[in-house]
Write a structure and sequence with these properties.
By secondary structure, the protein is an alpha+beta fold. The chain has helices at about 1-60, 100-105, 115-120, 130-135, 165-175, and strands spanning about 115, 120-125, 140-150, 155-160, 180, 185, 190, 195-200. A hairpin with a 5-residue loop joins strand 3 and strand 4. Its main location: membrane.
Length: about 200
């Protein structure tokens, strides 16, 4: 009887031990699964952070401003404004003629010396603008050669360059005869000279 009781108690202890070991295995397995899931979640978080970090670097690289080369400004030269005269007026007496001295005549032996109109120091009256030319809208430029004697008076005039309109040319020649100049002195002596006086006819 005592032997049977001892056997039963031993069997119960063994059974309890086996059950206890099974419980330990189950608890250990569940704990390992939780650790695996936690490690997996941490790995996903790290990968996500790494993936998020790369685009930020790319964005920061793209957002860098590119250097802009300075544009060189070309210097613009100022063009002179031409002087315009109105109806009945003409160019200033000190304006140089655009014709060369060789084409204007003079310079040969016995001919009067050709000088500029500014050198002649003349008083030039304003020419008369023909009424018919005004009505017809005629404009032009006439160059008149003045033949100046030793006293500074104009002896005669000649047409150096025509405006293409006879009325304007004749008005310029008439005005040229009314010009008065100072005697031109060379080597202490007054000499005869010629000069070109331009007349510009322009309607207002």
């Amino acid at each position: 009887m005592m032997q049977s009781l001892r056997t039963w108690i031993l069997a119960n202890k063994i059974a309890a031990f086996v059950v206890f070991m099974h419980l330990l295995l189950i608890i250990g397995f569940q704990s390992g699964m939780n650790r695996t899931k936690s490690a997996s979640n941490m790995g996903d978080t790290v990968v996500a952070n790494l993936l998020d970090a790369n685009p930020q670097k790319e964005k920061s690289t793209v957002s860098r401003p590119t250097p802009v080369k300075p544009v060189e400004k070309k210097k613009v030269e100022a063009t002179p404004t031409p002087i315009t005269t109105t109806a009945g007026s003409f160019t200033a007496p000190n304006q140089e003629s655009s014709l060369p001295a060789s084409s204007l005549g003079g310079g040969s032996t016995g001919d009067p010396k050709t000088i500029s109109i500014s050198q002649a120091q003349c008083s030039v009256p304003e020419p008369f603008y023909p009424n018919l030319s005004r009505r017809m809208g005629e404009e032009g430029k006439t160059l008149v050669r003045l033949f100046i004697n030793e006293s500074g008076a104009v002896e005669k005039v000649a047409l150096a360059q025509s405006s293409g309109i006879h009325r304007l040319d004749q008005a310029a020649l008439d005005a040229g005869m009314r010009v008065r100049c100072k005697p031109f002195i060379e080597f202490g002596k007054a000499i005869k000279v010629t000069a070109i006086q331009p007349y510009i006819f322009r309607l207002e």
